[in-house]
Amino acid sequence: MHAIMLKAKLHRAIVTHAVLDYEGSCAIDGEWLDLSGIREYEQIQLYNVDNGERFTTYAIRGEEGSKIISVNGAAAHKAGVGHRLIICAYAHYSEAELANFQPRVLYMGAEGELSHTSNAIPVQVA
Known about the structure:
The chain contains two helices and nine strands. By secondary structure, it is mainly beta. It has one domain (2-94): Barwin-like endoglucanases. Strands 2-6-3-5-4-7-1-8-9 form a nine-stranded mixed sheet. A hairpin with a 5-residue loop joins strand 8 and strand 9 (114-118). The protein is globular and about 45 Å long. It catalyses: L-aspartate + H(+) = beta-alanine + CO2. Pathway: Cofactor biosynthesis; (R)-pantothenate biosynthesis; beta-alanine from L-aspartate: step 1/1. The active site is at residues 25, 58.
């Protein structure tokens, strides 16, 4: 049996660029790609906290240390500069892999900087 699980998440990443005439994708600071385990050209899901848009694209490597989150191509209609995104990647895992499974979660600060990382999402309380 296999399960599709959250592989990686950038929580509340701030859009720094929205480039309609770029051929597509979402550029993410290369350091953040490496920390999250998201690969260049990997499919990602983007959830816009500010307007509720949800869309799919793929990741490309942005300049390391730049804090870039650039939503490109048609997706630029769905997220603008300053919007907060939740960027997720999912993967298939076998039952054996699930025994030690932990997602990589990067939490972004109010100014677009990396705040901290975690391997778990806090339990939601009532």
